[in-house]
Write a structure and sequence with these properties.
With about 70 residues, the chain is of the alpha+beta class. It contains one helix and five strands. It starts with 10 loop residues before the first strand and ends in a 5-residue tail after the last helix.
Length: about 70
Amino acid sequence: MKAVRPPLGSYALDTGTNRVGVVMGYQGPYVQLRPLGGGLEWDVPPGRVRAATPAERISAAAAYVNARSRGEVP
């Protein structure tokens, strides 16, 4: 199966870490994802990234809001 490059600005899941991020760009063969709410981007091999489902997006957003309310993230 050929890896598909998700569109810039879309939400994607890193299947290796189960982290949802926003597609920020491409560096060589890697997809660069940024965590919801900001932070450092991480590189994901193209075969390990797929579009995030609505449920995954909601779950990641809720986890961020909860962490922010506890003062764990800015």
